[in-house]
Amino acid sequence: MNWSRLVGLAAAGLVLCGCAPGAGATGAGQSPGVSGHGAHKAAGNGPSKPAHTPTHTPPFNPELDLSGNLDARPGQLISMRLDSITRAQGHDAVTAHSPAFGGPVRLRWQDDASYGATRPLAMTVKPGWYPLSVSVAGRTVARDKIHVLRSERPSFTVTFGSEVARPGESVWLNFDDLYPGERGTRFTVRSAALHRPARLVHDERYDFYNPRAFLAGTALKPGLADGTYTFTLYGPHGHRIAKKRLKIRASRPGDPDYLGKVHGPALYDPGLGYADSPHRRDFKVRPGGRVAVMWRDAVPDPGEETRLTATSPAFTHVLRLNRDDSKASDGDDPRYLNTATVRAGLKPGRYPVTVVAHHGRVRKVGYVIVTAR
After folding, report:
1. How high is the pLDDT of residue 59?
2. How far apart are CA 93 and CA 13, in angstroms?
3. Residue 142, CB half-sphere, CA atoms under 13 Å: how many?
4. How many Cα neighbours within 13 Å face the side chain of 105?
5. Closest listed residue to residue 123, CA positions, set 76, 188, 172
6. Residue 368 to residues 293, 296, 349: CA-CA distances in angstroms?
7. CA triplet 129, 119, 173: central angle to 5 degrees?
8. How many angstroms separate the CA atoms of 107 and 96, rounded?
9. CA 246 to chain centre
10. pLDDT value at residue 142
11. I need a labelling partner for 54 at 20 to 30 A (CA). Which of 40, 202, 305, 363 fits?
12. What pLDDT is attached to residue 304?
């Protein structure tokens, strides 16, 4: 083979592989799908770079957060959360395993960089410690334990905030029904001490981990005579489940809430506010005008906060006094206020403003002095 033929074959090979410098320089012979910029880079004298920058893979070190797993009872809810994991890493194949459950538990993507699930313990699980593991696509990534206690019989309780249950006081009715074989969700408590029957419902905010905790908040009648009252819990079909007896007694001399620690009524200009307006037992106002009424009591009767009123023949209606929550943290006594409107066309004179508290044991009077127009 002669020299000229060797040169011709080499040139043909360069053209076929796209390496001919003439075509890369002019762009006239560039094939579709190959950018001139990329060809120029390849033909340059600098070091070649990879076509794609490798993506950064987040570290795979998931963390397990387990809630409700200590001193749990059969049927109690266990909350599982696997953090520090992306959905791409989880592959939607995150599973928890424990003999305390009836079977595997699938954790779902939570849209907040975690997988989570809530599952009740089996009602048949025995007391003891049980292992729990979480796997991703079959690979175990976290471990923990669940401590199970023995089941407790259903219990019904009546609770209140003071040392002695007072007429008008708020009470909580609780029924813990987490026990094998218990069913139904309609529970009612009846008592002569209540205004009306109280329906108990499950509230996750009160007890998230116990799916069979039922409760109701209600109030005792304000005018109850001293005595022992029966609270009866009825089930879904009206059958009686349990009874509780509660002693209720009004406060007596010597009790801290007998007379409380009252001040008022203080009367002042609502336009100026309590801090900037003189406040006294006498307040001048014109017919059709407005007057603010303030009442303080360090130890009001139970439930009295919702019943305090100020009455006056000068007012257009009975004035309900509302709790002033703005003074809750400055050390001031609990205080109650509202603004009344004086009747239009009222004759000038001195009219009483009366507040009655502590079941009639405390009665205090202020005065509005209605002036001529």
Report:
1. 64
2. 52
3. 21
4. 25
5. 76
6. 11, 19, 8
7. 95
8. 7
9. 31
10. 95
11. 40
12. 82
Query: pTM, whole model, 2 decimals?
Result: 0.67
Distance CA(201)–CA(212), nearest Å, equals 9
Residues with Cβ within 8 Å of 56's Cβ and at least 6 positions away in sequence, in order, are none
**Whole-number pLDDT of residue 275:** 64
Backbone CA torsion sign across 311, 312, 318, 319: negative
Nearest residue to 338 via CA among 268, 284, 286: 268
Q: How far apart are CA 170 and CA 248, in angstroms?
A: 12
CA distance 279 to 264: 10
Which residues, given as ranges, of the chain have pLDDT below 50?
1-51, 53-56, 329
Give the per-residue pLDDT at 307: 85
- Which residues are within 8 A (CB) of 114 and not within 5 positions of it... i.e. 6 or more apart? 81, 82, 83, 85
User: Which amino acid is it at 251?
Assistant: S
CB 147 within 8 A of CB 71: yes
Q: Provide the pLDDT for residue 231.
A: 98
DSSP helix/strand/coil, 7: helix
Single-letter amino acid, residue 157: T
- Residues paired with 106 in a beta bridge: 95
Those residues whose C-beta lies under 8 Å from the C-beta of residue 265, and which sit 6 or more positions away, are: 281, 293, 294, 295, 310, 353, 355, 364, 365, 366
Cβ–Cβ under 8 Å, residues 292 and 274: yes
Query: Which of 353, 361, 347 lies closest to 309 in space, CA to CA?
Result: 353
**The total number of residues written for the chain in this structure:** 373
Among the residues of the chain, which ranges form H helices?
Answer: 3-16, 21-26, 36-43, 87-90
- Which is nearest to 340 in space by CA: 310, 370, 295? 310
Structure tokens at 44: 């340059």
Which domains does the chain show, CATH number per domain?
A: 63-148 (2.60.40.1930), 155-248 (2.60.40.1930), 262-370 (2.60.40)
213 within 8 A of 202, measured Cβ to Cβ: yes
Torsion of CA 303, 305, 306, 311, to 10 degrees: 120
Q: What is the pLDDT of residue 260?
A: 83
Residue pair 370/314 in contact (Cβ under 8 Å)? The answer is yes
List b or e across 272-289, with b for residues whose CB sees 16 or more CB atoms inside 10 angstroms: eebeebebeeebebebeb
